[in-house]
Amino acid sequence: MTTDQLLRQTLLRLDGLGYKAYKDIQGSYEFPGFALHIDYVQGDPFAAPSRLRVVMPQSQAGFPAETWQSRSREIALRDYLTRQFGRVAAAVREKRGSGNSGLIAIAPTSQYILERSALWVTEASVEARFSVGLPARGRQILGRTAAELLCDDLPLIVGRSLLYASLNPSELQRHLEVAEDADWLRDQLARRGLVAFVPDGALLPRQSGIDDRPLKESSAVQFRSPDSLRVEFDRPNQGPIAGMGIPQGVTLIVGGGYHGKSTLLRAIALGVYNVIPGDGREHLVTDAAAVKIRAEDGRSITGVDISPFINHLPQGRSTTSFTTENASGSTSQAASIVEALEAGARVLLVDEDTSATNFMIRDRRMQALVAKEREPITPFIDKIRQLYQDYDVSTILVMGGSGDYFDVADTVIAMTDYQPQDVTEQARAIATQFATHRAAEGGDQFGSLSARVPLPKRLDSPEKRWEKSWHGGRGRGGNRPTEDDRPERSPKLKARDVDELVFGAETVDLSAVEQLVEVGQVRLIGAAIAHIQQHSLDGRRPLPELLRQIAPQLATAQIDRLTPYPQGDLVTIRPLELAAAFNRLRSLSLKEK
């Protein structure tokens, strides 16, 4: 390994040469206190930035073992250091030439404490992965500027962000404790018969639909649980906390428009993640297998048994293995529920505002006008309790337009001015007083769930031209794959924000997968699907088995096995989001097991 002084000399020598000459600096360099690895050098100043890594021995970084030895704290520490590195890099950045010149950036963060491949902490070392825009004027190397960037600015960023002695210990401790307590609370839910917990004092409203930061206006209302639903916990770090526990079973959230129903449901949907201190939702937690479901006109559906909800279509079309390139609202919502159950969902989150009306309810008057034999749809109201009774799957449903759901609800929460009230008994009394007289449809049981087996075919439209690359690649401390491990080709992958994945020649619309919160999650989805395509599609293993096999690599240090080289821009996902994306591939082919 060469030294930082040699790197400086090389950059000065390259000054004024064509941009491609930057390739000469690829390699590893020993700096005082850390090693710099330049893994990839961009070939053009307007191309994707170069990829670098810094590895600092733990003896130099100095993080006490208690900051990273538990899984919760390790993820929270990595999250905190990623944010710190990004803040310091942004503070010292100075525009240095054309294109991406002068850029030093680590993976962007959000309100959520997530496991990212940008930063790793072990007993031996701290590793940060980041990108650098090597300076240029036009396409001519600015060697002196590059030397200042890598040999002066970078050590400053590393020293201020990756050394324990440089950090605010109380701020870091709070970050760790908030994450650890949230994980502990989430683990307690099932033991207490709950699917979600919303603490007193929580601030649920956000700045806007595209800004997930808390609403700071003085009119923002802090959440307070009704007495009848209040539960208490004693957290391991921050002690006692009380708030609203949402029980297992069927829960309705009702109330007038603009009173906070959907705001509460969205907060619950994102309660599968931990959030940063000061967000207002730090201690709001939801069952880790909760899935938001919505109608999705136009989506692709492949081989899904939607017969529990939709049957006897005209012309005798089958719904036990339903396939369409252009789903309706009702068929898409039915398929999304069945797919979520197949992937292991334990809680369904549904908002009537984003649901198909004919999927949700068929009232007595419509039943009288359109006989059941002429209506293929069994509405959700007739399946919601069966889901809980037959499969132990709970549902939280926002419903402002149909009191028919009072008949099937275990708990009814009314939102008024963003505050909840337990109106379960009133709803039951109303249901008794104003009987709907509608006939239950769809039988006494939910119906069977069939495992589907993806067929062994390429999912990325192989008629197109693909990049060649290494797969099953080198992880931290791993070895380069052998020639036998080298695939013939791998698909082009590109994430366009959190709602779109380019996979080969196909563009996958993920806008309805509402629990994706960072673009790095979409990148990981693409890498995981490519890995499954290469290693696991044998025509024998059902989709749930494929998900179980790859699950450890979605949220641990094994994440590097999914990519050709160590990447710093991947963010952990649940198998549930991977399944949702997989099921939206229009190239997917399946058979029933």
Q: How is this structure best summarized?
A:
The chain contains 14 helices and 30 strands.
Outline the low-pLDDT stretches. Answer: 462-488
Largest sheet: 7 strands, mixed
Structural class: alpha+beta
Q: Give the domain tally.
A: 3
Distance between the termini: 54 Å
Rg, rounded, reads 26 Å
Number of strands: 30
> Helix content range of the residues, please?
25-40%
Query: What does the oligomeric state look like here?
Result: single chain
Shape: globular
In DSSP terms, counting alpha (H) and pi (I) runs of 4 or more, how many helices?
14
Q: Assess the beta-strand content as a share of residues.
A: 15-25%
Chain-averaged pLDDT: 91
Write a structural description.
The chain is an alpha+beta fold and about 600 residues long. Helix content is about 30%, strand content about 20%. The protein is built from 14 helices and 30 strands. α1 packs antiparallel against α4. Mean pLDDT is about 90; it is low at about 460-490.
